[in-house]
């Protein structure tokens, strides 16, 4: 029996804190801030796509935890997704990069045309895996250490949610290739691994205890940690930040109402329209993707940037771009 994805991530708090810096930084600071927010948006888009795929998994019994943060002494690991089944556990790191990526024979990740390597998501996810394996069940719960001692029960997986860009693994070491998968192949891979696993199945009670132990170990996002995101921009401050009491949820609600209104206008004048918002029904996955992209994209200041948001494209931008940008402007 599948349970809904439980989301522990508080990235919206970080986004809101960073957005409040707008208009208070030097040109260099504003540029760096835009890049960071853009990368956050890409990451969230990728995670949302993975979440939608996970909802379609066909397994006997499993739980999904998103954005769990585990801490051991001074080391923290924020894990994109944990899929805890009654036999094995998948530790998933999601990536959505904005360029083609190649992995060489040494396992180094490089953007196409760039000689410099980038942080390896494999190493990053292996750190997450080690952290998960350190979470021990409370002895009072009397659950065996079946998952503590057997590393094969834990499967690290880096999922690339890129659709426009390629990941070249032709020269990558075999053991590394086995840890990387494209989002289109993710569900089949997980279901096949689960099916072939020969491990004893946990009872429903045992699985619930294991999941609860992970949830109990989650570390909430603190003001101190948010300050680390914001503090690095102190060197670029030129004036006090603009105070904005309107949050992401307010922006989302206003955009959703506007999209709904525009769709009704189209329906009333159906003969004069093409394939635009008439197909983006309220509450649909595509509409949610549009809203998510807009709400976490404070750097969008032009129609050119607007077209790059998932599911926006040239038609919506041409017809509604000015109206969308005018709404977003109030929330900078």
Commentary on this structure:
By secondary structure, this protein is of the alpha/beta class. The protein has two domains: 6-232, no CATH class; 248-330, Orthogonal Bundle (DNA polymerase, domain 1). 45% of the residues lie in helices and 15% in strands. It has twelve helices and ten strands. It has helices at residues 11-19, 27-54, 121-133, 146-149, 174-177, 183-196, 204-217, 223-231, 248-268, 285-295, 303-307, 313-329, and strands spanning 6-7, 62-72, 75-85, 89-95, 101-103, 109-111, 117-118, 154-160, 167-168, 180-182. It starts with 5 loop residues before the first strand and ends with a helix. 28% of the residues are buried. InterPro entries: HRDC_dom_sf, NERD. This is Nuclease-related domain protein. Residues 42-155 form the NERD domain.
